[in-house]
Amino acid sequence: MTSDNPIHTSHTQITKKAAAASRSAPPRLTTLILLSALSVLPVNMILPSLPKIAGTFHADYALVNLTVAGYTIVTALIEVVAGTLSDRYGRRPVALIAVSIFIVASVGCAFAANIDVFLVFRAMQASIGACFSVALVVVTETSGEGGAASRIGYASMGWAIAPMVGPLFGGLLDGLFGWRAVFIVMAILGTAVLVLCVRELWETAPRASRPVANYFISYARLLSSARFWAYTLCMACSMGTLYIFLGGAPLAFAQSLGGSSATLGFYMGLVPAGFILGSYLAGRYTSRNALSTILILARIFTCTGLLVGLALSMSGTALVLAFFGPCMFIGIGNGLTMPAANTGVLSVRPDLAGTAAGLSAAMRLAGGALIGAIAGLFLARSNTTYALLIMMLASASLALFAACCVAFLDRRACEPVS
Fold it and tell me: Which helix (H) or strand (E) holds 302?
C-alpha cells in the first residue's frame, strides 16, 4: 500500500536523500589519520615488553625479536596483496576485514598460551598494514591531486607521532598491568577504529570485475612505468637515508661524540620532530606547487643539511648539535617528500591506485632496508661520524636524482602529442 500523505512522502524522500548523502560524503581526515596510525602503532609498541614476553614463554630472545622484524616483512607482503584486492573489491571491505582480523589477532596475542601461538597471532596482526594503503588511496580519490598531497601531508603528522609514542605507551602499560595489557589496548583501539570506519568509510572506488590473471597484469603495468619507478625510488632512497641514520647514529654517538643513552634518545628525536615539521609544510604548500618541485626542494633541503654536517665534521667540530642539528634536515626532507611522492605514485594509473599504493609501499620498505643494510657493512669498518654522514649524503643524493627524473618524466607526460 502506498501512502497518499504528502508530508509523510516528503519526509521519507528527505530521509533517503540525507542517508545517501551521508554515505557518499568523504570520511573525515581524522578518521583516515586514525586508520593509518593504527597500521604503524603496533610495529614498535611492544618493544619494551620483549624481555618479559621471552621470560613468560621461556623462549629465546632472538625468537621473540622476530615479532618486530618478521612483522615488518609480513606487513610488506600484505600491502602488496591488499592494494590489489582493494582495486578489485573496494576500499571499504578491505579496510573493515583488515581491522577485524587485527582485533582478533590482538586478543589472541594477549591470551596466547605458548610462543608458537603468540607468533601466529602476531603475524596476523600485520593485516592492519593494509589500512595504510587504503587510507592513502581514499585521500586521493576524495580530493584533487594538489589537495590530496596537502591532506596526506597533514595526515603524515599523525603517522609520525604514532611510532614515537608507541614504545612509551607500551612501556607504561607493561609496567602498570603487564605485557598482555598492551595487546588488550590494541584490540580496544582497533574496535574504536572499526566503529569509525563502519560509520564513515564508504566506498570511494568504482566497482570493477577483473579476472585473477589481471592481478599480475596490474603489477606489470605499474612496473613498466618509468614514473612509478622514479617516485618509488625517491621514497626508497629517502627512507634509506633515515635507516642509515637510525643504524649508525648510536655507534657514532658512543664512539665519537660521547654521551648517555638518555641524551642519545633526545637528540635522535630531532629527526621525527623534523618529519612532523616537514609534513606540516607539505600540508601548507604542496597544493600550490607541482609535485616534482616539492620533491626537488625537499631533497635539496636534506642534501644541504647533510653537507653542512659533513663540513662541520671535516673541520673537527665534535659538538653533538653539530651532528644531530643537520640530521634534523633528514626528517624535514622526508616529511615533504612522502606526501608528494605518494600522490605521484597514485596518479600514475588512477585505475590501479590501490595496487600502486601497496606495491610502492612494499618496495619503499624493502629498498630503504636494503640501503641501510649495505651502508651498515661500510659503517662497521669505519666507525666515524664522517663516514656516517657520507653514507647518508650518498643515499640522499640518489633520492635527489630520482626527484629530478620525476620532474623530467612529468614534464614529458604533460607535453601534447603532435
Answer: helix 291-314
